[in-house]
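Form 7-S
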Amino acid sequence: GQSTTEGFDGLAKNLQDAISIMMNAAMKPNIDEPAKKAIIGSAKGVALATSALVGAAKNSATAVKTSDPALCKSILANAQSLANATSGLVNMAKGAAANKPPSKPEAAQATKEFNEALNQLVATANNAPALSTLDLQSL
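Output:
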């Protein structure tokens, strides 16, 4: 079986890839109908990847709730930050699909914040020993 750290890191990588696909589509210079469809499709991928990762994080937070309440709080706070950062990027992409693309610096800053939030979440969630007993199939 696959170790859950890999599982968690895998979920994080899926989300990173989805964000990258979405932002690449959103930052194209000329956004035509197919490009708009690509952005909207990739935004759905981001939403699914986000909820999978946040769900896994919440499970690991719940697993350490009694043994390590501080870690539990920390995981939940980081999951919230990640959700916020992701939703900021999704809004930018939707803006691009509506012919209001973000500026390159805006997109770069938002992507940087997303990556920081993601790294924080993975770091704290990987500290939850109960992850090793988590059944990823049940997510």
